[in-house]
Amino acid sequence: MQEDPVRILIVEGRFYSDLSDELLNGAVQAIQAFGAEHDVISVPGALEIPAVIALADEGGHRPAGVRYDGYVALGVVIRGETHHFEIVSNESARGLMDLAIGKRLAIGNGILTVEDEDQAWARARISEGDKGGGAARAALEMVSIKRQLLGGAR
């Protein structure tokens, strides 16, 4: 019996659109190189990403819903002058971890948390850090592990 192709949902925060484009390009290249299928949903920022992944997972349990094998979270959080950086960084990471553990979802976390825009570009550029591609590869690896341990369940 042939296994269904892997289907990934990329959820990208668009607060820093140029950086988001680069992260997305890296993720898409990694997913295509793997031979998987993907969809993309854009949200305003990093805090919205876990909620959309939860909604997508819940929607996949409905009769007409699309079932995803894994998720890639992409976004950028740059430190500013207020405590907001810590809230967004910590809560987006906590939300993703809660979903990964609580719902057994395969998630690649590509939300950059950096001091400044130069650090963000160094991590986002495909030719340098390629964190978008890295997050996609992590999600794909987690899908493989999940299939191995849970018998192919989506």
Automatic annotation (TrEMBL):
Pfam families the record matches: DMRL_synthase
Query: What catalytic activity does the UniProt entry give for this protein?
Result: (2S)-2-hydroxy-3-oxobutyl phosphate + 5-amino-6-(D-ribitylamino)uracil = 6,7-dimethyl-8-(1-D-ribityl)lumazine + phosphate + 2 H2O + H(+)
Q: Which residues bind 5-amino-6-(D-ribitylamino)uracil?
A: 15, 46-48, 76-78, 109
- What InterPro entries does the record tag this protein with? LS, LS/RS, LS/RS_sf
Q: Which residues bind (2S)-2-hydroxy-3-oxobutyl phosphate?
A: 81-82, 123
Any one GO MF term held by the record is: 6,7-dimethyl-8-ribityllumazine synthase activity
EC number(s) recorded for this UniProt protein:
2.5.1.78
Query: Where are the catalytic residues?
Result: 84
Which pathway does this chain act in? Cofactor biosynthesis; riboflavin biosynthesis; riboflavin from 2-hydroxy-3-oxobutyl phosphate and 5-amino-6-(D-ribitylamino)uracil: step 1/2
- Which domain of life does the UniProt lineage start with? Bacteria
The text of the family note is:
Belongs to the DMRL synthase family.
Protein role: Catalyzes the formation of 6,7-dimethyl-8-ribityllumazine by condensation of 5-amino-6-(D-ribitylamino)uracil with 3,4-dihydroxy-2-butanone 4-phosphate. This is the penultimate step in the biosynthesis of riboflavin.
Can you name this protein? 6,7-dimethyl-8-ribityllumazine synthase
- Organism in which the protein naturally occurs: Caulobacter ginsengisoli
